[in-house]
Design goal:
single chain, 18 strands, 2 domains, binds calcium ion, Arylsulfatase, C-terminal domain, four-stranded antiparallel sheet, Alkaline Phosphatase, subunit A
Length: 484
């Protein structure tokens, strides 16, 4: 009897020492840093030559953490990825089947959902979102954002938000702080100019955003918020950078700093803002107890026009492979639109200088944090139905980990499914005879550039892919594929 109690105790102790259990006071802070339109190859650690750009802060983050080389977004445009990050659910399960949330569109997330920030609150966290929201406001399509906005980001479990409503160049031209226009002086609306797309600005009587100051504004608002918290208060910050989405306008102090023109400077601006957040954590003694996840919302945007005046083309012409050596870019169904840099860093807790080639996605951040910090306490299947924790891949890199099938969707709403070494792309516009509209199948192990369509020869794989796609459209991923 005595012996069996002893054995029991040994088992208990070994279980606890093998898993990370965070007590209330030691719960790690979390910063999810999502750069905008930031391609796979846009940092040194993912292949960019130092002669062109320098990204020391991202490099260091990877060297002290885990760098994923097979990380993907669920959308090749902004909104689907951001929706999935907040909810752990594919955006095409909502009414948004293609494109993105437009300037006057209502809120996409159902306020009843247990979002990632709400889940973090349930663990005792203070939560904030600073930067690009792009998930809509209010219950219905609106004419303006005057008055109290409902729903606003703060209705999704965010204690604080300082939001760029849609994009760096959106026509709102103001920030939304919590549920109001930041600094609003009166209800007068006076459109006064043209935006990048030729639309008029809204003309709210509030401080207008200065485009080249946005990165500085977001960094300082984030630091201000973190500073306002008690040092022992665990926090979750979703830092949604506005760079490197066009217009390509690096902060004034970054101009001319890279050897790849304004686009290179803008990339370095992202790296600098990450560095500023890290410097703050270090000063405050919080660095070691903070998890930082660095990723992007979709691949880099390569202009269709090849003229060299475009900063992106100037950088590409210099030899910068914005999206690495992959096909396509933002908006497209090709991997260049989905493959992103993805770094997970938690000093001394998660392996240093490791590279992982397992498939992970930004949609998995929710389930990972719930698993890593909360031991899945209080999380039901329907809360993050398409999200899978990759904790095992981080903490036990030698153990086999294979993510269940992952669905991508492009700007037009066309879907692709990535599974068991294959990528299947569904047929588009049945009536057209364009080769690119046919269904396509690529081997992910032999054909990383998606050049040889095997749909006609690998018929059994195509049948399986279609079966998977048709199932996942009606049922949640977790109903079909349990966590492995
Ligand atoms: Ca984007």
């Amino acid at each position: 009897m005595q012996r069996s109690i002893k054995l029991y105790l040994i088992i208990i102790v070994s279980i606890f020492s093998n898993s990370i259990i965070f007590s209330q006071s030691k719960k790690p802070n979390v910063i999810v840093f999502i750069a905008d339109d930031f391609g796979y190859g846009s940092t040194n650690i993912y292949g960019a030559q130092e002669a062109l750009i320098k990204t020391p802060n991202v490099n260091k983050l990877a060297k002290e953490g885990v760098k994923f080389t097979n990380a993907y977004t669920t959308g090749s445009v902004c909104t689907p990825t951001r929706y999935a990050l907040m909810t752990g659910q594919y955006s095409w399960r909502t009414k948004l089947k293609k494109g993105v949330v437009n300037m006057n569109d209502p809120a996409l997330i159902d306020v009843k959902r247990k979002t990632l920030p709400k889940y973090m609150q349930s663990l005792g966290y203070k939560t904030a979102m600073v930067g690009k929201w792009h998930l809509g406001f209010k219950e219905k399509k609106f004419n303006n954002l005057l008055g109290n906005i409902y729903p606003a980001p703060t209705d999704y479990g965010l204690d604080y938000s300082f939001a760029l409503p849609n994009n760096l160049d959106d026509g709102h031209k103001v920030y939304i702080e919590n549920n109001k226009i930041y600094g609003l002086r009166s209800d007068k609306i006076s459109p006064y100019g043209k935006s990048f797309y030729g639309k008029q600005y809204k003309g709210y009587d509030a401080p207008q955003r200065v485009t080249e100051q946005v990165t500085n504004d977001l960094t300082s608002k984030s630091i201000e918020w973190m500073k306002s918290l008690d040092k022992d208060q665990p926090f979750f910050l979703y830092y949604a950078a506005a760079a490197v989405h066009h217009p390509i306008v690096p902060s004034p102090q970054m101009r001319g700093k890279s050897n790849a023109g304004a686009y290179g400077d803008f990339i370095q601006d992202i790296d600098r803002s990450l560095g500023d957040l890290i410097a703050f954590l270090e000063e405050r003694g919080l660095r070691e107890n903070t998890i930082i996840i660095f990723a992007s919302d979709n691949g880099g945007d390569i202009p269709r026009k090849k003229n060299l005046v475009m900063p992106e083309n100037f950088a590409i012409n210099k030899g910068l492979q914005i999206n690495g050596n992959y096909k396509g870019d933002k908006h497209t169904i090709w991997d260049g639109g989905f493959r992103i840099p993805f770094i997970v860093n938690h000093p001394k807790k998660i392996g240093e200088d490791k590279t992982s080639n397992v498939t992970v996605s930004t949609i998995d951040i929710y389930d990972f944090l719930a698993d890593y910090i909360g031991n899945n306490k209080g999380l039901d299947f329907e809360d993050a139905p398409d999200s899978y924790s990759f904790k095992k891949a981080l903490l036990k890199p030698n153990k086999f980990y294979e993510r269940p099938p992952l669905v991508h969707r492009d700007a037009q709403g066309r879907k692709a499914i990535r599974f068991e070494g294959w990528k299947f792309i569904e047929e588009k516009n049945k009536d057209t005879k364009r080769k690119m509209n046919a269904e396509m199948l690529f081997s992910l192990t032999k054909d990383k550039k998606e050049s040889t369509n095997l749909a006609k020869t690998e018929t059994a794989v195509v049948i399986k892919a279609k079966d998977y796609l048709s199932k996942v459209i009606v049922k949640s991923s977790k109903e079909i594929w349990k966590n492995n």
